[in-house]
TrEMBL record:
Keywords: Acyltransferase, Transferase
Gene3D superfamilies for this protein: 3.40.630.30
InterPro entries, per the entry: Acyl_CoA_acyltransferase (IPR016181), GNAT_dom (IPR000182)
EC number(s) given by UniProt: 2.3.-.-
GO function terms (MF aspect): acyltransferase activity
Top-level taxon of origin: Archaea
Organism annotation: Saliphagus infecundisoli
Annotated ranges, domain N-acetyltransferase: 6-158
Protein name in the entry: GNAT family N-acetyltransferase
Length: 302
């Protein structure tokens, strides 16, 4: 096969069986690939302006797939890159990336980003070879929703976007995450958090007698089907930052209450991957994901 034998086109629902066959052995030791379960809902409608899914076709074979999503006026998110095992190391991911980069550029994007599981060494290497540079890393905390979650004495919960923005702006968490937060437009995507976001999304801040001590915002609430077939409601939070362990305790208490108020049965909170932040979250929130996720980006103005 040569690069000239590869045809890049938009993915369709008719590609489902080929995509399932392509990913049937992906992440077999980690429960398998999620793509077959979500494919038909995940695929954009024909003519959609903000999303396009590309497949690489070699003869009658679907050799790879990737999706590009606009998550802001100048920001693109690339996700779910897969390449058939028989076609790896033959330039397929590069062709798919170039197609998605061109599509995003044509729509005004100046930066593109991707999230890769930290254990996925092959994907990290492929991303770097396509021009992506490392940006940051994050981890998830999973507190339990609780309408009666404890708030430390002397702390108040403020539903004030200006207060949440002020704390986030000056926080080490914002610096570590390079200003990125969860995108309300797309699950598993990050983009630059703006002050306007916090006027439109539910924002939380916690304060004691000395002033602001933490902040976060709820990016989305959605339903997901578990492995047991049960539908669960999940609330997601980002922009999580706090001053110290007691501030973390107050903030996670506020998050647990807010999640319960919207009927969530599951919660995940995006955290900067630092020893202090992760150990604080483990202390006050309990469950924390075992491994971090990496975010890489590429300059689309070049």
């Amino acid at each position: 096969m040569s690069v000239s034998d590869v045809r890049i086109r938009r993915a369709t629902h008719d590609d489902y069986d080929a995509v399932v066959a392509m990913v049937e052995d992906v992440w077999a030791d980690r429960g398998g690939d999620y793509l077959p379960e979500i494919y038909h809902d995940w695929l954009e409608e024909e003519g959609a302006e903000d999303t396009k899914t590309f497949v690489a076709e070699v003869g009658d074979d679907v050799a790879g797939i990737v999706q590009a999503v606009l998550v802001g006026p100048e920001e693109a998110w690339f996700q779910t890159m897969r390449v058939d095992a028989d076609y790896r190391r033959q330039g397929i991911s590069g062709r798919l990336n170039r197609a998605s980069f061109d599509w995003a550029r044509d729509r005004g994007a100046t930066v593109g980003r991707v999230m890769i599981f930290s254990w996925n060494v092959a994907s990290l290497a492929a991303a770097r070879s396509s021009g992506f540079e490392p940006i940051t890393e994050f981890r998830w905390a999973h507190p339990e929703p609780d309408p009666d979650a404890a708030i430390p004495e002397g702390y108040d919960v403020l539903e004030k976007p200006a207060a949440a923005w002020r704390y986030w702006t000056d926080s080490p968490a914002r610096e570590h995450l390079r200003g990125l937060g969860l995108a309300p437009e797309e699950s598993w995507a990050l983009r630059e958090l703006t002050r306007e976001d916090l006027t439109e999304l539910p924002a939380l801040a916690v304060a004691d007698g000395d002033g602001l001590r933490g902040s976060a915002y709820r990016s989305r609430v959605d339903e997901r089907t578990g492995d047991d077939g049960e539908v669960r409601t999940r609330a997601e939070y980002a922009g999580a930052a706090w001053a110290d362990l007691e501030g973390a305790r107050a903030l996670f208490g506020a998050i647990a209450r807010d999640a319960a108020a919207v009927g969530a049965s599951e919660v995940r909170v995006c955290l900067p991957e630092t020893a202090e932040t992760v150990s604080d979250a483990a202390s006050v929130a309990g469950a924390v994901s075992e491994e971090p996720d990496f975010v890489l980006g590429i300059d689309l103005t070049r």
